[in-house]
Model the fold of this input.
Amino acid sequence: MLPAANIGKLGFRRWHERQLVEGHAWFVTGILCAVAVAALLETLSFHNPLPQRLLTLGGAFVAGLVACYAFNAYFRITTRAQRLADRSTCKQCGVYGRYTLVAASSESMGVRCRKCGAEWTIA
Ligand SMILES: [Zn+2]
Done:
């Protein structure tokens, strides 16, 4: 599914920049959650009472789930941004990312170069 509506509204370059910021925010979230998992497991002790151990294990489990989701979001967002960036250079004049959306479907976008007017399809 292509983000044609957002690219049409923001322009490709601004959309791409926002995707990279969002993707790396997820990456930092994943790193922080992975550190939290390690820290919680480090504090786990069998000398502590059972409820405290369960709370620690539950916290580590939740932080692990959030870390998995965050790394998945990071790879999904940055991969899509890179895939579209690879197709965003005008083959006629070589300008990168300066196009106007002229048609959109769920699987492809028809775009027109703002510099030379060449049209191509991004799928
Ligand atoms: Zn062009």
Notes: The longest helix spans residues 50-86. DSSP finds three helices and three strands in the chain.
